[in-house]
UniProtKB/TrEMBL annotation:
The keyword Coiled coil applies. One of its GO terms (biological process) is DNA-templated transcription termination. Residues 52-172 form the NusG-like N-terminal domain. Belongs to the NusG family. This is Transcription termination/antitermination protein NusG. Residues 182-209 form the KOW domain. GO terms for cellular component: cytosol. The keyword Coiled coil applies. Participates in transcription elongation, termination and antitermination. Residues 10-37 form a coiled coil. Keywords: Coiled coil, Transcription, Transcription antitermination, Transcription regulation, Transcription termination. SUPFAM superfamilies: N-utilization substance G protein NusG, N-terminal domain, Translation proteins SH3-like domain.
Amino acid sequence: MSESLTDSQIEATELAAEATELAAEELELAAEELELVPQVLEAPAPVEKMQVARWYAVQVASSCEKKVKATLEQRAVTLGVDNRILEIEIPQTPGMKLKKDGSRQSTEEKVFPGYVLVRMVLDEDTMMAVRSTPNVINFVGAEERRATAKARGHIKPRPLSRTEVDRIFKRAAEKKAVVKVDLAEGDQILVTAGPFKDFQGEVIEVSGERNKLKALLSIFGRETPVELEFSQISKQS
């Protein structure tokens, strides 16, 4: 009886061992299957790089500042970069032109002839939009070369500092109005106002910044140099 019981115990033990081994194999297979299943993980949301608009100086063909400004404003809309090309400025100060008849005509004098200022977010698209605009020569103040699909071999512009921008616009605001005159040394003039009214003379010096000129007037039979305001004379034909 004890021998038969021992055999039963042995058989039960063997069955338990087999069951354990099968369970282990099943667990191993399940683990392998899990390893074969690709795990899809959500990629972290890309961190959007903050785009900052800066001022850049752009050199343009002579006397083409207004044409470049108008064309670039239109092209920015057409090319879909008007949300990155934000402002185009031509720093100017009021001026005056003295006509031959002595009358004055209001004008706008450019602070930096041959340049426009563009406030924009710098990237390949905005650089291409500016550089490909007719009458644009190039950006000013390059600091390194940049080879890209759209701007290969071009030079990366250097943005103007806040100090430079403030100085430019302050200069435009404070610059005195300059009177442009169609006068040169040797021209004959007639004094139309002031103590020398109706005197005739010859121009010997023109100072547009001071809105004045010097002329030789015949006073008491002698050629005398006299300083006159532009508003006091008219040019003789």
